[in-house]
Amino acid sequence: MPRHTLPALILAAALCYPAAAFAQTDSHARDTVESVCAACHAISTVERSSGYTRDDWRALTSTMVDLSGAPEMQAEILDYLAEHYPPNDNRAATPVDGPLTIRFEEWQVPTLGQRSRDPVEGPDGHIWWVGQWLDILGRLDPQTGAMEEFDLPAGARPHSVTIGPDGDAWYTGNRNATIGRFDAATGEITEYPMPDEAARDPHTAEFDADGILWFSLQGSNMIGRLDPQSGEVRLVTSPRERSRPYGVKIAADGMVWVACNGANCLLRVDPDTMAVEEITLPDAGTTVRRLDIDSDGIIWWVNSALGRLGRYEPATGDIREWASPSGPDSHPYAIAVFDGAIWYNESGVRPDMLVRFDPETEAFQSWPIPSGPVHAGILRHMRTSRDGEALLIHQSGTNHIARVSVEGR
User: Do 283 and 323 reside in the same domain of the chain?
Assistant: First the structure.
């Protein structure tokens, strides 16, 4: 099993913050934290966290970087963070009680600092994930907890992974402009490069019923189609400039639906012609990270910019929205139809909340998402297990994969 060496100076979101945030005292501790954070690229600041006790800072940072070999440095960092950033109610969530009880099962992935994300279940029950920052593809046996990690081509920066009809793992090379196929039996990797240099960043991908892989390219403002049999890649540009195609789902009738993370729209793509139709959403400030489709063909989407849950009925054009419990700054992100309801998360609050919406009663219920012994990290994509009995989620900031089930099912 290929192993990765943890970058010595990687710390995650909670530790990387600007020098101006520090008091002028404790300058040595400040410099220590800054030196450790220097290996990170742009991430959220500690001022926007909910703060932690010293023990919780220890638990949180241990999911991001291994400082056990430098106990004096670790103590200095923990003392500073605990003193200056104790628990607070910044960005506090608004939890909603309800009748259901859910169960979280968690696994921390082996290599820290990788930003594990987008778990998906294979036909044998194994759960696959990608480590975006460190070019990792991972596989978890949830029955035993055993995990394997595989090296992807350097610079791929995989954004997501999905399972093909062949049972192999297909990932999006977000930085090297490829779609990759990982042969689960041999470990062989086949790369499919983009045919247009303007197509820079394959993002999220889903297979349709005919085995065609559809994918978004957010920064390139495109939608792509890959035929695994021929290897042909076709691309089409979104009709809305800077619409930033993001989440992708395939409807039962074969239509491809894509979320607009940069504009107030949904995109409907004809699978035969690749003609793209824009559905304009009411508020100009709307942006949509992800969407899902229920058994009646209704499109459910998150209004990430305005903190709402949305519903679009293709047959009638009817659009409705509901305010998310934690308000307009809650930034709903991932979404999935599960257990007869709509599930999504509020990523703009702390802790990151898992929210359930019952379409029949229009009632909400929510739970804080754990990241080990603390509530941190962020959920960026969720999907159901193949049998529909569980929800697969993650906390990328703390390198956790999780499975959620409803008690009493």
Answer: yes
* Nearest one of 320, 325, 392 to 355, comparing CA atoms: 325
Report the side by side order of strands in the sheet with 158-163: 158-163, 169-173, 178-182, 189-193
Query: What CATH code is carried by the domain that includes residue 360?
Result: 2.130.10.10
pTM reported for the whole predicted model: 0.91
Per-residue pLDDT tens digits of the chain, which is 409 residues long = 444 444 433 333 334 433 334 344 477 776 666 666 445 433 345 667 788 999 999 998 888 888 888 898 899 889 988 888 899 988 899 999 999 999 999 999 999 989 999 999 999 999 999 999 999 999 999 999 999 999 999 999 999 999 999 999 999 999 999 999 999 999 999 999 999 999 999 999 999 999 999 999 999 999 999 999 999 999 999 999 999 999 999 999 999 999 999 999 999 999 999 999 999 999 999 999 999 999 999 999 999 999 999 999 999 999 999 999 999 999 999 999 999 999 999 999 999 999 999 999 999 999 999 999 899 889 999 999 999 999 999 999 899 999 999 998 7
In a domain, 7, yes or no: no
**Residue numbers of the domain that contains 281:** 102-406
Count of beta carbons in the 10 Å neighbourhood of residue 52: 24
Number of domains in the chain: 2
CA-to-CA distance for 242 and 244, rounded, in angstroms?
Answer: 5
- CA dist 11 and 70 (Å) reads 14
Q: How far apart are CA 286 and CA 192, in angstroms?
A: 33
| Residue 378 sits in the same domain as residue 276 | yes
Instruction: Burial-class residue 315 by CB neighbours within 10 Å (0-12, 13-18, 19+).
Output: exposed
Residue 373 CB partners (closer than 8 Å, separation 6+): 56, 59
CB-based burial of residue 376 (10 Å sphere; 0-12 exposed, 13-18 middle, 19+ buried)?
Answer: buried
| Per-residue tokens: 170 | 């297909």
DSSP 396: G
Which of 368, 371, 353 minimizes the C-alpha distance to 108? 371
Domain boundary among 84, 110, 144: 84
Q: Is residue 22 part of a domain?
A: yes
- 341 and 215 in a common domain: yes
Residue 140 belongs to some domain of the structure: yes
Tell whether 314 is covered by a domain. Answer: yes
